[in-house]
Amino acid sequence: MDESGSPQRPFVRLPPLGALRAFEAAARRLSFRLAAEELGVTPTAISHQIRQLEEALGRPLFVRRPRQVALTETGAALAPALSQAFAEMSAAVEAARSRPQPKVATLSATVAFTAKLLAPRVRRFREINPGWDLRLHASDEAVDLHAGEADAAVRYGLGTGGGLGRLPLMRDRFAPVASPRLGLAGVEDLARHPLIHFDWRIAGAATTPSWSVWAETAGVPLGDARSGLTFNDENSAILAASAGQGVALLSLELVAAELASGVLVQPFGPELDGWRYDFVFPERAADRPAVRALRAWIEAEFSRSGPSQGG
């Protein structure tokens, strides 16, 4: 019995498919020559295939007469079953060939960008690209676009890498934000609340937005600007700030919804420059339908939302 409860059929080693196909055509046409024309081979090849099949079965399939062949009793019994089997295989192959291919476009972006700026906009993707499905790949590790791990990506930082085309999206800005429940009135109130940090994955830049850089820019002494609460991702830092757990130095683009709704407030400046978000794709794949679909969506959404453009 198999897993479905049906009795298992004993394994039977089938003769070569080519020999079965040659016999089926010759049996249907009752002619080696016509079978050869149908299959695009020589009559000698048909004769050889059928002889091979007869040897495998241990019995003749045709009575060979001058310029004429006739089926033996075994051949007459075998031919209809093979004709039906080949017809069903042809129908199955044609159905598979004509089955619509799903159209899926995969966009990779950081976890925070995906959650805050892409997920709220996914409905528009299908409106702009009917018949397409969208797959969002959220990761803070850059995927290999040249290897096909995604069709395109939104990258943030100092460069895009070789062989990639890019579409500048926005220049980021950072500022202190907090829950209005903390009642921050001025920079002097920072001393009463924990500072919220997140670990940057972009290394090698002295201008990485941080509380230390902000304090130097603002001319405000913060004591130990590295103390407080530290998270390894921006989403967690945003949630902690929204819950009133402290004051966070966050991307104003990523917390735009929280600022608009009043969940977070920006009590004071100054603002720090961040880097630019770019829509990137392999240059050799610029005309691929999936890349075009993603680009049309990204351009429409970010031009509608009106982010600041980076140079």
UniProtKB/TrEMBL annotation:
Keyword DNA damage: no
Keywords: DNA-binding, Transcription, Transcription regulation
Domain HTH lysR-type, first and last residues per copy: 15-72
SUPFAM superfamilies, sorted: Periplasmic binding protein-like II, Winged helix' DNA-binding domain
Family: Belongs to the LysR transcriptional regulatory family.
Name used for this protein in its record: LysR family transcriptional regulator
Species annotation: Chelatococcus sambhunathii
